Amino acid sequence: MAAEMVGLGGALAAAQHQLLFLLLLCFLAGGARASPATDALRHASPRAAAGGLCQQLLLPQGYPCTEHTVQTDDGFLLSIQHIQHGKNGVADNAGPPVFLQHGLFQGGDTWFINSNEQSLGYILADNGFDVWIGNVRGTHWSKGHSTLSVHDKLFWDWSWQDLAEYDLLAMLSYVYTVSQSKILYVGHSQGTIMGLAAFTNPKIVKMISSAALLCPISYLDHISASFVLRAVAMHLDQMLITMGIHQLNFWSEMGVQILDALCDAERLDCNEMLSSITGQNCCFNSSRIDYYLEYEPHPSSTKNLRHLFQMIRKGTFAKYDYGWVGNLARYGQLHPPPFHLSSIPESLPLWMGYGGLDALADVTDVERTIKQLRSTPELLYIGDYGHIDFIMSVRAKDDVYVDLMRFLRAQQGLHSSY
Question: Does this UniProt record's set of keywords contain Membrane (predicted)?
């Protein structure tokens, strides 16, 4: 009887996979018309990663910048950049190390993609901080592995859980060793999921002196982004995995076709692609979109998307769900273990900036995160800010970074002159 049940279960699973496969084929072949946003992606001219982030962005602006390679415990080769001081600073006058961790479909370039006067990376360097830039596996800057190629399925077998447990550990350990100092952590979006999960690990949190989280995410069950909600409802993550699509690259023809199919005007108008994904942004400079598309979006893994969709569906902040059998094999229990925010030490100073128009880091979910922490973080709430405003707003210098740097300096006992 048990064998029959297993056989029936396997047959049902196979049938479900075939159905999903057929649905995705119909979905992609549905003749969805290109939106202005996907046309922009089709005609974008992405910059090659040759030469690295330093050569492409920072050195031409007159900032000292060096490239470093860090290997994770599971073999990924990550590129991180070091900006020792500002354009007019001196090398032996570096302040405390600050580590910047980007969000989903972004890379380290996101901290420098606006002007010198508007980008947080430049502003921190010009104000005496010793700036380090993280780039997670799979981004344009971190495509290496000790044994795998980006064309291998296993290269993309990871989610943000691995970014927190492997990538952050490797990058922060390197900066901690080189600087011989505890690190000021700054993360945005996925960089905050990684941070909050990592800070439950004593091995990682001992290297951090304080953390500033822009659009903090640990729970996603109140997400309101129309584009994301449609993708979740269609089980896009399962469709892609069933088709054997393990890398999400929206510069590829397949990636653009997926966007076109989701942006069926009858169900979802993506003429304003960014707002359909992140919510309205008050101060995003849309005139620079062609320039932004030279660097972003960066690739990520389908497994990462699926992990995020699991969080949306279940309302949990937990490890990746492999199903009962897979969970038993990996975790020794039927359900994936949660990340307990109460495990983050009360002694770790936290600062959080979040916005009232953010459709990803919803205010209700941010408040749930705050309630589960043992300490009370310092908070900056901006009612008309969306998800991207905190890193790309033309007003963020005054609206956000003044308070963020005050917090970072206060943890080091430094006077804020910004």
Answer: no
Distances (CA, A) of 316 to 179, 182, 217, 312: 36, 30, 11, 8
Residues ≥6 apart with Cβ < 8 Å to 160: 104, 190, 193, 194, 197, 304, 307, 308
Report the distance separating Cα 358 and Cα 225, nearest Å. Answer: 9
- Conformation bin of residue 28: beta by default, left when phi > 0, alpha when psi is -120 to 50: alpha
Give the pLDDT score at 268: 54
Structural tokens at position 83: 């900006």
Amino acid in position 268: L
> In one letter, which amino acid is 325?
V
Torsion (CA) 226, 227, 228, 232 in degrees, nearest 10: 100
Interval 77-134: pLDDT, tens: 999 999 999 987 765 556 789 999 999 999 999 999 999 999 999 999 999 999 999 9
Q: CB neighbours of 25 closer than 8 A, spacing ≥ 6?
A: none
Distance, CA of 176 to chain centre: 22
Which of 130, 117, 133, 132 minimizes the C-alpha distance to 90? 130
Residue 343 and residue 317 in contact, taking contact as beta carbons nearer than 8 Å:
no
- Taking the C-alpha atoms of residue 95 and residue 97, their distance in angstroms, rounded to an integer, is 7
Average pLDDT over residues 140-144: 96
Mean pLDDT, all residues of the chain: 87
At residue 28, does pLDDT exceed 50?
Answer: no
Active site residues: 189, 358, 387
Q: How far apart are the first and last CA of the chain?
A: 72
Q: Are 397 and 117 in contact (CB under 8 A)?
A: yes
The pLDDT tens digits for 323-343 are 999 999 999 999 999 999 999
Residue in the block written with tokens 């048990």: 2
- Helices 253-262, 36-43: axis angle to 10 degrees equals 170
**Token pair 């069933």 is at which residue?**
242
- With tokens 């994936």, the residue in question is 336
